[in-house]
Every structure is written in structure tokens, then in C-alpha cells.
Amino acid sequence: MRAIYILPGLILAGALLLSSVFIVDEREKALVLQFGEVKQVVDQPGLGFKIPFVQDVFRYDDRILGLPTQPLEVTPLDDRRLVVDAFARWRIVDLEAFRRAVGSGGVDAARSNLDKIINAEIREVLGGVNSQKVLSEDRTTLMNQIRDNARAKAKGLGVDVIDVRLTRTDLPEQNLEATFARMRAERDREAADEIGRGNEAAQRVRATADRSVVEVVSEARKQAEIVRGEADATRNAIYADAFGKDPEFFAFTRSLTSYERALQAGNSSMVMQPDSEFFDYLRTEKAPAAVPAP
């Protein structure tokens, strides 16, 4: 009979013992609540104890958590809208404050609240600078400022914002086409300027070449006229010398030259008086006497 009561007692005692013991993983922290009031904070891994059926254990992730924000539009000082999204890393550091802030919502509620805080800081910080600074590679200062402001506001949630990084900073889709059109117009203007400068340079080269051609041709003609004049002078000197030595022979050779030029092959018609001096040597019945050798 006694064994009948002992066995259920042992089972009940074992159940009470098991329900009073809990294990905290090294990746977790735990809160022991009694009727919604915090009775114990367990921030070290190992075994913990609680009052069965009266106290409850709530576990929270002790690792560094990530939070990708949704894309949002910001308007910098130069009124050039940008689409920005970020990635934040955070961690629960104060379990009691975290429980008071999010209640039974846990990590999901904390993410929602933290997302609002970070988005508000992104709008505030990026709205105070020009878009050129936001789009430049040197924007670490802006990200650190967003992180520090979000960290200060997130203390009430019992979390620490470790880092905030801007993962994308782009123009909105409706602005991309206008931006590309403006870029194309700028490139077309630059191309037109280059073409204009090239045409101007080509015109200068052509003008220089034409001037050089004129100068070279003029100089060649000048030299040709000089040579021709010198040749004519030499020829006239030779003629004069020949005329001085034998006027009759000179007249004869000049007449032969005239006949050669006037009486070409084919039919040549000439109208002149029969007694013209042009026919003096043609009317001679006999050949002139041989010209003595000089």
C-alpha cells in the first residue's frame, strides 16, 4: 500500500523538479517573470531555477542581429531625390528595458521600432547635405552620424546599434531617364564642341596649305620668268651676235623660221601681195650663194 503512494509522489516530485530547472544556451539571455514582473535576469549560459507554475522564462537572442531597412526616398539640400536603403547591426544589451519597451512582441517588435528610428535618422542626416556628398565614396562620416543618432534613441529599447551602412543610394526610376537624357545632351554638346574645334583646326590647316601652295607657285613662276628672261636675253645676244657677223645669213635663217611656222602641213592659205618681202627667198630663181664658214 505504501508503494502505491510513494511512486506518484516521486513522479510528482520529479515533474516539479524538471519544471523548476531551465537551461540557458550560450547564444541566449533569459528573463524570469512572475505575473509579468521581472524576478531574475540570466545573462550567463548554464542551468537556472524558477518556481514551477508561478514563474515563466523568456529567452532572447544574445547574438548580433541584422536589420535591412526598406528603400525610402530622401531629399538632400539640392532637392535631388534619392532612393536609399541601409543595413543595421544591433544587439540586445538591457533585457529589462527591452521587455518594458516591446512587451511580448520580442525581437520582431524591436525590429519594427528600430526600423522607424533608423529611417528617421537617415532622412534627417542625408537631408542636411548635398546629393553629391551622399553619392560620393567618402560617406563614412554620414553613416557614422546616422549610427550615433540611432544608438542614442535606441537606448530606450534596451538595444545597442553597432553599425549602420548605406547599401544603396540611387536616383528614383522616374528621374533616371531625365538624368540619362541630360547626360546624353551634355555628351552631344561636348561632341559638337570637339567637332567644331576640329573643323576650325582643319580650316586653319587648309588655309595654311593653300597659302603655301600660292607662295610656292608664285615663287616658281617668278624663278621661271627670271630664267625665261635670262634665256631670252641670251637668245637675243646670240641673234645680235649672228646678225653682226653675217646679216644676210641671219635674215635667211629668220625667213626659214617664218616659213616653217606659216606654211604648216596640209592646206595653208595666205592672202598678201606678190611682191611682199615675205616671198623674197621664195622668188629667187637660184639658191643663194653658199655662206662661207666663219
TrEMBL record:
Database matches in InterPro entries: Band_7, Band_7/SPFH_dom_sf, HflC
Keywords: Membrane, Transmembrane, Transmembrane helix
Coiled coil spans: none
Membrane topology: Single-pass membrane protein
Cellular location(s): Membrane
Family label: Belongs to the band 7/mec-2 family. HflC subfamily.
Designated name of the protein: Protein HflC
Organism expressing this protein natively: Cypionkella aquatica
